Amino acid sequence: MGMLKVDFEFRKEIVKEDFSLNYCYQCGTCSSACPVALATEGEYNPRKIIEESLLGLKELLIKDQKPNVWLCSTCQMCVEECPQNVFLTEIFDILKNKIVQTGNYPEAYNIQGNAILEYGLAILLTTPIIRRREQLGLPIVESANIEEIRKLLVATDFEKKINTNGYSKTGKGEK
Amino acid sequence: MTYKYFFGCVIPGRLPFLEASARKTFEKLGIDVSDQTQYSCCPDPTGVAALDHKSWLALGARNLSLYENDNSDVLSLCSGCTETLKSVQHILNNEPEEKEEINSILKKIGKNYQGNINVKHFAQVLYENLDAIKENVVKPLTDLKVACHPGCHYLRPSEIIQWDDPFEPITLDVIVEALGAEPVDYELKKDCCGNPLEKSDKNLSLKLLQNKLESIKNSGADCLVCVCPACYQQFDFNQREVNKRYNTDYNFPVFYVTELVALALGFNADELGLKFHRIRVSDILQKLNV
Lengths: 175, 290
Known about the structure:
- The complex is a heterodimer of chains A (175) and B (290).
- Chain A is mostly helical.
- Chain A has eleven helices and no strands.
- Chain A folds into two domains: 8-102, Fumarate Reductase Iron-sulfur Protein, Chain B, domain 2 (Orthogonal Bundle); 107-161, no CATH class.
- Chain B has two domains: 2-122, Glutathione S-transferase Yfyf (Class Pi), Chain A, domain 2 (Up-down Bundle), CATH 1.20.1050.140; 132-288, 3-Layer(aba) Sandwich (Rossmann fold), CATH 3.40.50.11810.
- Chain B is built from 15 helices and eight strands.
- In chain B, strand 7, helix 12 and strand 8 (254-256) form a beta-alpha-beta unit.
- Chains A and B meet through helix 3, helix 6, helix 7, helix 8 and helix 9 of A and helix 1, helix 2, helix 3, helix 4 and helix 11 of B.
């Protein structure tokens, strides 16, 4: 491994979004409470992600993704147990948002994002489900006007931020 | 204040029988809930928030504005939706700059966020109506041993969710007990089912599920109960996958808590669409004589 590069600007970017990062004193309570850290025998390690964030180790976090922040199950045990009130999962979302800008993230997230762009919902109703709803005496599902949702997502630049290659507004959403 | 449902994406689109059990239960209990038909994805706190914080916040605020406009509280059928809507409220009510920015976005679609309604998880509303449940039980679920799985976003982060105990959750056990069933304790009760990891690592997702199932097995439970469609899918759809991979023989029927309430209130298996469960529930129905 080459020399690690500390990027103070990167750390500032995270702190600007969530200043609770600065409260961390690296006690490791988060990792001991984390079911994924236990299941991966420490390969996934929330304390380490926070340490790298404090040091601004951008390349490790964003490019190499070590530890892999996408392995957080979002169970919030770390947030609950942290004695310093560090909002770890929110910091992880900041990192994930930054990784998304590089395009190097799990496809399942993209499928969901594109489905919302297309339908306003993450899951499209299939014919068997529509039939099943009828059998159960349930009403037809009505939801948001998709033009309104798209207008909102244009205002937040959602389409520019996520990968829409291979998806079209007339294609298929989540399978 | 009356309630309007927030159904979310997963229940109407994949698990409509859970919606049926909720509608029947709340109607029978005389709780005033109607439909809101302009909602979008909440959006998913485990998915969309990871893609883009601002879009997650704006879509969530739009959803909340619909209920504010209707002067209704949210009755959410999903723990993920509940967490998103409560978190969005928490952020916008505590950070004026974020609120201003989001409202300038909402203005483009003729909407506005104020922050003056309550968001409630359906299990909270059940818990708050325990007396009505007890009065309406006609088929007590006697001798049924139930392992309750509260799941993560029903409880945490407690500062935002403000419901039940994040370390020693009890509300579901109390509801199940009111039905005449016997809640059982187990070691990994507050742990994650593993569902969100399906998006990044299926093996790891199943490993967390297997840990959970082993703990439930040790408790001697007949079945398990959950209150989130993501957890439901993980337990009901992936139990066989765990058995294949780990050479185990878990076979726990999985119920939404509204299904157990509805059974105790006298609804039958056909009305509730219990045949759509992947892990068969017939042994349980036989045991309960319903």
